[in-house]
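Need tokens for this chain, all 376 residues.
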Amino acid sequence: MKKLFSLTILMIVFVFAFSLQINEFVITGSSGWEEVEFYNETGSSIELSDYGFRIVGGAGSDSVSLPSGALAAGAYVSYTPTALGLSLTFSNSGMIFSLFNASAMIDVVGYGTYGPAPAPIYNWSAARVASTGDNAVDFNIDDTPTMGSANNAAATALGTGSVFFNECYPDSNNGFADQFIELYNSSGTGVDISDWMIMCGDDYYFAGGTIIPGNGYVVVNNPDFPTYFYLDQDKDHLYLFDNNFHRLDQFGWEDCPDGQSFSVRPNGVRTTFDGWSTATSPDFEFYTPTSGAVNPVIETLNKEAFTNISVRSIPNVGIEILSNGNNGEVSIMDVTGRTIYRTHMKNMIFTTKAGVYFVNVNTSDFNENYKIEVIK
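Here are the structure tokens for all 376 residues:
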């Protein structure tokens, strides 16, 4: 398995008044190629030795001053870790790069398992495409790095369209053979995903003519993974790109339990598209694998005496509520919050059309709301 390390989760979303920027980096290339590029975005020359560069990763941390020399306005300069005098190399799985001067932090980029910027694969780079202060938006992958000149990577497009990750199964107990990745099309119309790409240590491309049907699924199974593409059960992340290299979606996880997948629940309901860890991928939960099918929603109350109440979606039927002898009131609301059904607590199946619903369970001691999606 990939050698990965535990970390304290940090949200790498900062807003800086840039002067010198971290502009592009390569972390794994031919003949051990690693390189980081800086860009002077000011209107005047700056002295590079006035700035320091720090890297933090699973193997430790190190800080150095940039080599002496003037960098003209609008110019670029790049260094290998050795040229910078760093004692560590750049990690394939993830790191935090920081650029600072004597008085302030100037720029911070977290990639891979350490932040929302994408971790580039062999001979590719992560290149700056914007300067919003949000690493997820500001960096994208470039398969033709442009060290020493202006970046030409495609812009990010996180959360656009209707096709996104819906489930992955990184279990490695069967030698990776059972692993899979599932995409879901939340629209009612088929989408052509020919030449779209999933990246995880290597690049997998969908064949020409691949159509994901409306409200349907496409599953990529382990036998179809490229040579260096595999899912690490301990910690990993996935990126989805369209055929123009726009990054559409990403998520990550740590410590996936044996025999469980990391799946979107309720099925197909996505709100966050820039995750890189379990904590930053809140649309996903660890649950029983359901390759190419609806991810079930089952929520059980475990509060004091109310230990057996469950609320779940039954595909093609509706909402099941099991009271198991508890007393109270149940209200079912549509996606606008309008109450469409109310009754005393009992075992019941509420038949309804497809959609998102909210179920309120209310007793004298307990009040809880549940978001449920019914798939038909």
